[in-house]
Design a protein that fits this description.
Blueprint (H helix, E strand, L loop, with lengths): L6 H9 L3 H10 L7 H5 L6 E5 L5 E5 L12 H11 L7 E6 L5 E5 L7 H13 L4 E8 L32 E6 L5 E3 L8 H7 L5 E6 L7 H19 L3 E8 L7 E7 L4 H11 L2 H16 L5 H16 L22 H11 L8 E2 L2 E8 L2 E8 L4 E7 L4 H18 L19 E2 L8 E2 L24 E8 L5 E7 L26 E9 L4 E12 L16
Parallel strand pairs: 4-5, 5-9
Antiparallel strand pairs: 1-2, 1-14, 3-4, 3-10, 6-7, 6-8, 11-12, 12-13, 13-14, 15-16, 17-18, 18-19, 19-20
Length: 554
């Protein structure tokens, strides 16, 4: 499995701003900033903060209210890791042999061990003189973990895959089950492995990418099996004979070190990737590495928490006490951070802000869980901001309020004109006015236009699916623009037609209904020239995994 398998959805998420953010921004032409009254339209627990270029907080609402950060906590993980591990840190993997020609592979949590990386390591070992292995053992002694990764649900989905000291392909197994029952690899760069046959025999026909512990397992044992099988296959492809696999076993004291190979990417490169694509798997392994570096191996969740908290405390001072971090990715709802502490964290992170996704509006890291939609980063003029939107009263309230709040923040960076002052001198658009059509409540002076609705006929003979969740806007040749619209659908939702092909299937064998639709527009008139489905076979966006992708076509 290549990193490329995660990138399409992540590329779209990089440009994702619910499209009404931009419509409101462009329509405003005035400075505006959300206050607690606007956030109250979304739910009882919203908060935000805005700081100037010197780090001084200038605006905010509930600045000291602890909030669930979701994936924006990854910024804290990176801040701590750059200090503890160093920007040039590379994860090691140790290879040793004993007198019986047994090979021991000791992993230290390298998150970049894709099929291609393992193949490159195998070639290097062959060049170092390894030609024959009696038994290949996985040494898991660098980690001492128990139970699931904090925040993970134990589902079959790849984003719930466990971490481990020697993990390959993000601990997700790609396979394809053919109508005949034959099982083959689900991607060209990954060879056939016995674990694929075991995991695929109960799956419906189609391509699958499964959590290595799908159906339940002992994570340490199953992860070691998967990594052992892949290393064996790639070693044999490189010309090394491997007679058998022996599972988990520590490297014996008398074994001879053969090589220590390091990840091709530095921590800086990994950090850019995990922030752009919000890769939970990488974030948690970086988090664990911080603990092991500070307090010694084996890596544990407790060591990681203590190390990161200690590092943040030294960099942020007293404000770090408002950051409670139990995992590196933000999956756990036990994580907490205040808007004020997040602004302080962003000030420390400022020299590294180019690690974040960027567009013309600035730099942003998003964070979402069910009922949680957060954003943090820097406006184009350099000001830091954080916005927490949680516990929405309804999906409609979330969409309405999120659009208004983000538009206000972005508008504040674009113009010096002011409006009437609100509480604490905050400039306001004014209250939301009830929409007679009961679709989108907007402040006085704002309008909207519907260009596409669920059920509308599309050019590919389908209809617009349900549950549109967000959009990315892209320039096309000849002055046209494309809106790529994400649909977070589960089996049973309105899919917009009979789907014959898609990225993945559910257990009953049908193509998963979620995905994207693309609209091609005349920018002058917003006339829809074409609209069509551009992806099927996903369910919903989860941090770190490719569950929303889009195809833009001219």
């Amino acid at each position: 499995m290549s990193v490329r398998t995660q990138e399409p959805g992540a590329r779209l998420r990089r440009g994702l701003r619910v499209f009404c953010f931009f419509l409101l921004l462009l329509a405003a032409g005035r400075t505006a900033l959300a206050d607690c009254r606007l956030l109250a339209d979304i739910g009882p627990a919203g908060a935000y903060g805005l700081a100037d270029g010197s780090g001084q907080t200038t605006h905010g609402c509930r600045l000291d209210q602890p909030m669930v950060p979701a994936s924006i906590i990854k910024i804290a993980t990176v801040v701590a890791a750059l200090r503890i591990l160093g920007p040039e840190y590379r994860f090691p993997t140790q290879f040793s042999v004993d007198d019986g020609d047994n090979l021991y592979i000791r992993g230290f949590g390298d998150p970049t061990l894709t099929s291609e990386a393992v193949a490159a390591m195998a070639v290097r070992l062959r060049q170092l003189g390894l030609t024959r292995v009696r038994t290949l053992f996985v040494d898991g002694s660098a980690f001492d973990l128990s139970g699931l990764t904090p925040g993970q649900a134990g589902s079959d989905n790849p984003y719930d895959a466990p971490v481990g000291p020697l993990s390959v392909n993000f601990n997700a197994v790609p396979l394809e089950r053919h109508p005949s029952g034959r099982i083959t690899p689900g991607e060209a760069q990954t060879p056939f492995l016995p674990i694929m046959a075991q995991m695929g025999r109960t799956r419906p026909a189609g391509r699958h990418r499964l959590n290595v512990c799908a159906g339940g397992c002992d994570p340490a044992t199953r992860v070691a099996r998967y990594s052992g099988e892949l290393f064996r296959a790639q070693l044999e492809a490189a010309g090394v004979t491997v007679a058998g696999l022996g599972g988990l076993r520590p490297t014996p004291a008398g074994a001879r070190p053969l090589a220590t190979l390091h990840s091709a990417q530095t921590l800086t490169a990994m950090s850019r990737s995990l922030l752009h694509y919000s890769t939970n798997f990488t974030a948690n392994l970086v988090f664990l590495a911080c603990g092991a570096q500070r307090f010694g191996y084996p890596a544990t969740w407790d060591k990681a928490r203590r190390a990161v908290a200690e590092s943040l405390g030294s960099q942020l001072g007293a404000s770090a006490r408002a950051i409670v971090q139990v995992d590196g990715a933000g999956l756990s709802r036990d994580n907490r951070v205040t808007a004020r502490a997040m602004l302080g964290l962003l000030e420390v992170f400022r020299p590294h802000r180019d690690l974040l996704p960027r567009d013309r509006h600035g730099w942003i890291k998003t964070g979402t869980l069910t009922g949680v939609a957060n954003g943090a980063g820097y406006l184009a003029d350099g000001r830091a901001y954080v916005l927490f939107l949680t516990q929405p009263a309804s999906r409609r309230a979330m969409l309405t309020g999120t659009g208004a709040a983000f538009a206000a923040l972005f508008a504040a960076s674009r113009t010096g004109q002011t409006m009437a002052q609100g509480h604490h001198g905050i400039p306001l658009y004014g209250p939301l006015r009830k929409d007679p059509q009961a679709l989108l409540d907007l402040p006085e002076g704002f309008t909207y236009r519907v260009i596409s609705r669920m059920g509308d006929a599309m050019d590919d003979r389908g209809t617009v699916p349900d549950r549109a969740d967000g959009m990315g806007c892209f320039a096309l040749p000849r002055g046209r623009i494309a809106l790529v619209r994400n649909h977070e659908l589960k089996p049973g939702d309105h899919a917009g037609g009979n789907l014959q092909a898609g990225y993945d299937r559910h257990l009953a064998g049908a193509v998963l209904p979620g995905g994207t639709t693309t609209l091609v527009l005349d920018p002058a008139t917003l006339t829809v020239e074409r609209q069509f489905r551009s992806l099927a076979g996903t369910i919903r966006s989860r941090s770190g995994m490719c569950q929303t992708c889009g195809v833009v076509s001219s």
